[in-house]
């Protein structure tokens, strides 16, 4: 997600001025601290959902105060505990089950508050647009989990490598495409079923970035401009 900061995410934030941001997937906090700098300056808040943060949570809270809230739990446990938010950044567990249900929980929030958030999702293109990846396979119901292995990926090759390769330290589905497989598939399935009228924007570099915006949002023109001129 951090690779999209300057040309996409930062302009979206500065244009839409969210008061509450939810970030799913922080790890070392490359994007997190930029979000928090914005929040501290503008009187907003970022809620960080990360079960295993690679930063000092105590030091972060001391530095940013009320601008930051850290929830060290899985996203599907954390999202129901958040009353409302304006912007949702999804860069956590890149599989159909998790992303689809993250979107369904955002929809439930919107039904309750009357306002659908802007949602930004990483990894909507290769390799995880059409292939599941699991950090913790045991956290996914067995019937929703694709056959997977700790084997890496290579651009232009559908089969997993026998050794080495991209993301060989996480569990990758043995095959790509098919039903309920991958981040982009989750987005498409959700949007097809949702009773909210939504528009989807896509950037293709850096493994893909998807942006979901409600039809009644006043920000379509600026987001369309950002997507068209980012060069990403």
UniProtKB/TrEMBL annotation:
Any one Pfam family match given in the protein's UniProt record, by short name: Methyltransf_24
Protein name: Class I SAM-dependent methyltransferase
Annotated organism of origin: Cohnella luojiensis
Superkingdom of source: Bacteria
Signal peptide region: none
Keywords for the protein's UniProt record, in alphabetical order: Methyltransferase, Transferase
InterPro entries: SAM-dependent_MTases_sf (IPR029063)
Keyword Methyltransferase listed: yes
